[in-house]
Amino acid sequence: MTDLEKTSLNIRPSKTIKKKIALNQQELGRKLSKLKESDLAKIELDERLLRALIEYKRLGNSHGAQKRQLQYIGKLMRDFDFDKLQHSFEAIKTAPKKFKYEEAVEEIQKNVVNRILKEGESAIHQVAQAYPMLDRKQLRHLWRNWKRTPLEKQEIHKKKLAKYLRLNL
After folding, report:
1. Could you give the CA distance from residue 35 to residue 88 in angstroms, rounded to a whole number?
2. Residues spanned by the domain of 24
3. Are residues 32 and 56 in the same domain?
4. For a Cys staple, 35 with which of 39, 89, 93, 167, CB 3.0–4.6 Å?
5. pTM for the full predicted model
6. Is residue 5 in a domain?
7. Are 87 and 119 members of one domain?
C-alpha cells in the first residue's frame, strides 16, 4: 500500500464539519433538555448526560451558564449515536399524548357545573345519585347562591361550585 492510499483511507473531517456536528449535538441537547424527566427516561442516556440535561433546566443564563452547559452536553453526546438520539427524540415528540386522569376529572367537573347551573334541582338530584360523595345540601346551596346573585357576580359563585366539586370528586 502506498502513502497516497494510506492518507486517502484516513480522511479526517474538516474543522468546519466538526464544528457543525458539535452545534447539531448542542441543539439536540437543548431540545432534549426541554423534555420532561419521564420522557428522558424513555431514551437510553448515560447518567452523566441525564444529569447534565437536568442541570441545564435548573441554570439561569447568568454569565453564559446555559451556553457552557450546552457545550458540556455536546461533549457528552460525542459518545452516543447522534442519529439514534435524534430518532428517539422525534419518536417522543410525535407520540400521541395519553389522556391524563386529571384532565378527565376536570372535564367531568366542568360538565357537572354547567349541568347544575343549567338544569338546577333535577341535575343536583341526578349528580348526587351518581356521585354519593357529594353533599346534596351543599350543591343546592351553591346553586341557589349562583341563581340569586346579579349577572356580573355569578362567576364568583360558579367558581365556588367548581371548587367544591374539584375538592370532593
Report:
1. 12
2. 11-94
3. yes
4. 39
5. 0.48
6. no
7. no
pLDDT digits over 122-154, tens only? 888 888 888 888 888 998 999 999 989 898 888
| Cell 354547567 belongs to residue | 114
Question: Is there a contact between 52 and 73 (Cβ–Cβ < 8 Å)?
Answer: yes
Residue 32: CB atoms within 10 Å = 24
User: Can you give the CATH number for the domain in which 33 is found?
Assistant: 1.10.60.30
C-alpha distances (whole Å) from 13 to each of 73, 74, 82, 86, 127 are: 21, 17, 16, 21, 70
The residues, ordered by sequence, that sit 6+ positions from 81 with a Cβ below 8 Å of its Cβ are none
Q: What is the CA radius of gyration of the chain?
A: 29
Q: Is the domain of 113 the same as that of 86?
A: no
Domain-embedded: residue 21: yes
